[in-house]
Design brief:
There is one protein chain. This protein is α+β, with helices and mostly antiparallel strands. The protein starts with a helix and ends in a 10-residue tail after the last helix. It has two domains: 67 residues, 434 Repressor (Amino-terminal Domain); 243 residues, no CATH class. The chain is globular. Helix 9 runs antiparallel to helix 11.
Length: 325
């Protein structure tokens, strides 16, 4: 059950900077009268859910901290609303990923488990053309650009490109990572490129450079699989799933914090920090590993066959067909 009004008020008082007057702070932030704030602080009137969300964002605490775990209720953070452009959402996703990577980098105890059926933008930061393609597809699916807009006409904003370069360095600080790859993780991206090529939104020359980036991406991940590390401290283990993975998802634990990220490809990712949800999701990811095979620094035959097949997909991407064609 939700905590009492007094618990919520104490949580706010604990997080409002000491140098500020709580009542005036709440008046300014919530744009309500002094009387309305006093009634809330006395417990005569409850804070609305929207007010709690706004306060949690500004003061840096999770709404889940105000809800007991046995209540069966969890809040989530969605990086967009009906008025947010898909370009801004793409930028917000990268910012939040960078924030989490930086927090993990300075934490003593960390654990990350990923399950991927599509290569997300964070995987593509070293491949300029594939990264641009992911941005291009993101805008198309979000209807932020006309359906006939060419790949060549889309320009990735400088702020996004700057973040992309920063993330290349930030990723190297990752450690204790387990990644479970779906059997179609590369094929899904190859199909997407071929789809836009068939629609004549990507030229032959652009498709050629995208193919080179696909080979480069396969090489990068193959090397990580063989080495098993980002750096001297950054251990990573890759598993190959025997089953298709429904959607991209991440579980991250650092120090005493936990967060789950559900990365539904066609919409912005959903961030949840509720401990019960994180525990359930971690168990699901660990169960998925039982249907997967470790290919990092082992199973050289399976490892070699998997990457051979991915390169074959790239080589023969012209043969991919779609319904009604």
């Amino acid at each position: 059950m939700p905590q009492s009004k007094s618990d919520i008020i104490q949580k706010l008082l604990d997080h409002i900077p000491k140098e500020l007057k709580p009542v005036q702070y709440l008046v300014d932030l919530l744009d309500i009268s002094n009387e309305s704030v006093y009634r809330r602080m006395k417990g005569e009137v409850s804070f609305s859910f929207d007010e709690i969300i706004k306060l949690s964002h500004e003061l840096g605490f999770s709404v889940d901290e105000l809800i007991s775990e046995d209540g069966g209720i969890a809040s989530f953070e969605l990086l967009a609303n009906s008025t947010t452009s898909y370009s801004d959402t793409f930028l917000n996703i990268l910012k939040l990923v960078k924030e989490h990577l930086n927090e993990v980098a300075v934490s003593g105890d960390t654990e990350t488990i990923n399950a991927w059926n599509h290569l997300p933008p964070i995987f593509l930061v070293k491949c300029d053309h594939l990264f641009k393609f992911r941005y291009f597809k993101w805008l198309h699916q979000g209807a932020d650009i006309p359906s006939n807009r060419m790949y060549s006409d889309v320009i990735v904003p400088s702020e996004i490109l700057s973040l992309k370069e920063q993330l290349i360095s930030d990723i190297k600080t990752s450690r204790n990572v387990i990644s479970v790859m779906g059997p179609s993780i590369f094929l899904n991206l190859i199909k997407e490129i071929q789809y836009y090529y068939i629609r004549k939104l990507i030229t032959d020359e652009e498709k050629a450079v995208l193919k080179e980036d696909l080979y480069k991406m396969i090489d990068i991940i193959e090397k990580l699989v063989q080495d098993g590390k980002f750096n001297e401290e950054g251990k990573i283990s890759y598993y190959l799933s025997s089953l298709e993975i429904d959607t991209n998802t991440i579980y991250v634990q650092y120090d005493t914090k936990e967060v789950c990220i559900f990365w539904v490809v066609s919409m912005p990712p959903i961030f949840i920090s509720n401990k019960e949800v994180c525990t359930v999701q971690k168990k699901w990811l660990e169960s998925l590993m039982k249907y997967s095979t470790l290919i990092t620094s082992s199973n050289e035959l399976m490892q070699s066959e998997f990457f051979r097949k991915q390169r074959e997909y790239v080589k023969n991407m012209d043969n991919i067909t779609f319904p009604y064609r």
